Structure formats: structure tokens, C-alpha cells
């Protein structure tokens, strides 16, 4: 991540027409971050385009083997809204490497 801020989003839960409980979140490793703090914000976007933060966490230094994780329950009327993640490097950070996954996990019941 060479830029100061990176913003990614996923569309609403159209793959979940039955509205099963689901979570959205991330699980990743942060590398090359010695002495650096990375702020990670999970958010939901409203119909008017306003972003509503669901979770804000800060990670300082390297986080190995997918140790930086967060998951938020997304259900009801919010399941079809876009959700996003914003990564922001704090002052004094160089290039930081982030590897992992971000998105939805749908919890379908056993049949």
C-alpha cells in the first residue's frame, strides 16, 4: 500500500436473498509496518451515500498470519447496502503490505 489511504467496498448481500444472518469483515496480515500504525474502518453506505462506521481499529507494527481480524453482524434492512473498508496509514508510515480477505460470510442453516 503505497498510498496514504485505501478504500475498498463490496456491494450489498444480493447473494443472500433469504436474508440469512451474515457477517462482513476482514482477516489479514500487515507486513513492512515497523513503527507504523494502520487504522482500519469497517463501514456501511446509506442510500444517500453517507458512510456509517461500524468498527474502527488500529494496528501498530506487523501482524502475522492473518492476526488482524474483525467481523460485524449484518442483518435485516442493512444487508443489501454496500459495505466497505478503509485503510489509513498514520503519520510516518512508508509502504505497507496488506494480504488477506475482506467481504461477506453468509451463515446458511444446515438442511
Helical content, roughly?
under 10%
Detail the poorly predicted runs. none
**Can you write the helix and strand succession as a string?**
EEEEEEE
Number of helices: 0
Number of strands: 7
Structural class: mainly beta
Describe the structure in your own words.
A 4-stranded antiparallel sheet has the order 1-6-3-4, with no helix packed on it. It has a 3-stranded antiparallel sheet with strand order 5-2-7, with no helix packed on it. It is globular, with a radius of gyration of 15 Å. By secondary structure, it is mainly beta. The protein has no helices and 7 strands.
Structural features:
mainly beta; globular; 3-stranded antiparallel sheet; 4-stranded antiparallel sheet; about 110 residues
Amino acid at each position: 500500500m503505497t498510498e496514504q489511504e485505501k478504500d475498498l467496498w463490496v456491494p450489498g448481500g444480493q447473494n443472500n436473498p433469504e436474508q440469512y444472518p451474515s457477517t462482513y469483515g476482514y482477516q489479514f496480515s500487515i507486513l513492512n509496518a515497523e513503527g507504523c500504525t494502520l487504522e482500519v474502518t469497517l463501514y456501511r453506505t446509506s442510500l444517500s451515500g453517507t458512510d456509517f462506521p461500524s468498527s474502527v481499529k488500529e494496528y501498530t507494527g506487523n501482524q502475522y498470519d492473518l492476526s488482524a481480524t474483525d467481523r460485524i453482524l449484518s442483518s435485516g434492512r442493512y444487508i443489501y447496502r454496500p459495505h466497505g473498508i478503509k485503510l489509513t496509514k498514520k503519520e510516518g508510515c512508508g509502504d505497507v503490505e496488506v494480504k488477506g480477505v475482506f467481504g461477506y460470510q453468509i451463515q446458511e442453516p444446515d438442511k
